[in-house]
Structure formats: structure tokens, C-alpha cells
Amino acid sequence: MNDIYNYFLHSQPKLSKTSLAGFQKFVAKAGNxxxxxxxxxxxxxxxxxxxxxxxxxILKTAGYNVGIFTSPHLIDLRERIKTSKWCISxxxxxxxxxxxxxxxxxxQLGFFEKLTLASQLHFANQKVDYxxxxxxxxxxxDPTNVISDPIITTITSIWWDHTHILGNTLKKIAYxxxxxxxxxxxxxxxxxxxxxxxxxxxxxxxLIRVYWKKATNLHWDHQQKNAAxxxxxxxxxxxxxxxxxxxLLSVAHPWRLQYLLPNLLIDWAHNQxxxxxxxxxxxxxxxxxxxxNLIITLKQTKNPDIIKKNFDxxxxxxxxxxxxxNQSALAKKLDLPLISPQLLYQHALKNPQxxxxxxxxxxxxxxxxxxxxxxxxxxxxxxx
Length: 384
Known about the structure:
Layout: H1 2-9, H2 21-29, E1 38-43, H3 48-61, E2 66-69, E3 81-83, H4 90-103, H5 111-125, E4 130-134, E5 152-155, H6 163-166, H7 170-177, E6 187-189, H8 194-202, E7 207-209, H9 221-236, H10 241-248, E8 258-261, E9 264-267, H11 272-285, E10 291-297, E11 316-318, H12 327-334, E12 338-339, H13 341-350, E13 354-360, H14 362-374
Parallel strand pairs: 1-4, 1-5, 2-4, 5-6, 6-7, 9-13, 10-11, 10-13, 11-12
Antiparallel strand pairs: 2-3, 8-9
Helix pairs in contact: 3-9, 3-10, 4-5, 9-10
């Protein structure tokens, strides 16, 4: 199993970063598996995961065999490649790895290209009707953008993120995300952006803007806006309203505003926009609690100062035992105490009138859950 995962995780990409032409040659070698099913292509700054899972739920509810390609994974790499049945099996993934090695003996493909092609080969093998494909962090130069004829594209938001790759202005970021818009293919959005409008007009792609909200089982106002996007896309592919509504009320999207206890909340808000969403949610429920305690988990590469723009104060840094993480230094820099996962859990049990919120880095939230599991305090749900 480790050999399979290492094939992806230890990739050293050798293809051009300024063109998809090199990757397109490998896709052609593999028989252009993208051509075997209908594709909904999603670009994003925030919201792509929620919209993708909503569409996955809607299409499954409608009885279709659906593939979904997402990132990042929470626990297991195979979560990124799923169909209506389940995640890709280790056996199927191993077969695809052997095939990729044959068509790429010099190991030129990087992590993103390998997983993108693996997902499409799996979906073709499973004969899916539809595939929901998320971009990685890019748009125009995203490996998934070798897709030439999606049935619909959607851009869920434009905001500051990955500026070292996408550009340091919202115009530049919008231009990169708009790169997924295809000739004459409808593009669905729930915000106004002049760059997207301009690119859609150039490509004669119908631009459909959604203004309303729809109900979903996922928490909070922004998810109702995401649900409206998914609803509109469902209607564009002729799914009936009741099926869409049922699908929107049955969405699985773990670790987004998820309660481990009635007063212990985790969320992987990881950028400025998501911090605003989390802050708005906490403000709305603040009257229920005598105190809200904020505990952050973050990598040393992240700038902790951005937290001050949205939260008046933070109460602690989560103490994770990991060889590559020096959270003592981070806590000292922020002048905050460290708290272990098990002690935090016990505090939540002893103080039911207080809310405890753990957020920021997705990776360290998973480490947090593993620590709780090791002490028999919580059993993370199996995602594959």
C-alpha cells in the first residue's frame, strides 16, 4: 500500500509549468478518458468542495453513477477519487499506477497530473454517467483543464489565496480561474466579476448568475448560496426539483462546522474568506454560550497575524506531537498557552456551557482527531 501512495506523494514533476501541452500528450496516450462521461468542472477560491459534494449528492439521488474528484483528502489519498459506490479501491488504484508507469516510464508526471489522470481512468473504468471535477489551486493551467468539453463550468468564488501562484491581485486571480471557461459551455456563478464576464463573452459561453439561496443540511448562510449554485446546475441538466431538494438535504461534507461534542466544534477555515464565514457563524450562535474558546492549529509557514483581522482574541494553540512541527515556538511567538487534544476534550466535557472551537489547518485537525482516537476519546468516521 505504501508503494502505491509513495508513487503519488514522492513525485518530482518534470513537465512545463507554463503550458498543459506536455500533460495533454499523456492524456492522449491514455486514450483521452475524459471523453467517456459528462463533466461538470469547478474552479474556486472557496466553496468548491461544498458545491462538488452537493452536486454529488444530487446526481446520486437522481440515480446516476457519479464520479467525483476532489482535493485535499482528509485521511486517505483515495478519498480524492470516488464514485457513487465508494472510494477507488487499493486494487484498482494499484492497477492504474502500473498503467501510468508504462505510459510514463521516465516519471515525468507530477503529483497533480498523476492523480488527475488516475481519477479519469477510474471513472472511465467504472462507466460513470457524470464526473464532478474540482480544479486544484489553479484554473487556466490546472491539470484538470485538459478537459476540452465539459457540459457546465462553475466558479464558486474569487478571493485572495495562493497568490504566489495565481497573482497578487484579484484581477489576476480571476483571470486564472476564468481559464476553465470553454467555448459555448454555460458557466454558473453566484457573484459578479468583470473578468469572468469578459472571458465568458469572448468564448460565447452563457454566463448564468444565481442570486438566491436554497436549503441544505450543511451549516450556515454561505452554504445556502452554494446550494443555489448546485440547484441551478441540477436544473440545467434536467433533474427535477424534488430530487435536487432531497439531494441538497443529504450532503456529506465532514469537518466543515462539525461538532464532535455538543460544545466542541472543528472547522478547517484556512484563509481570510473562510475566517469571515466562521466568525459570522460564531457571532450568530454566541448567545448560546457563556464563553467561546478559540484554539488554532496551523503550520509554521502560515502567517498567524491574519487571524487578528477577524477575531479579537485566540485562547490557545493546539499541542500536536509531530517531528516537523514546533508549536512551542509558535505559541511563544503568539503569547498563547499550548493545550493538548485530550485536555481540550476534557475541558469541553467539564464546561458544557462554553463552546470550544478548533480551526485552521486541515492537516493538523486530522492530527488532532488521531490524538483523540489514540486516547479512545473519539472515533473518526471512515471516509474510504
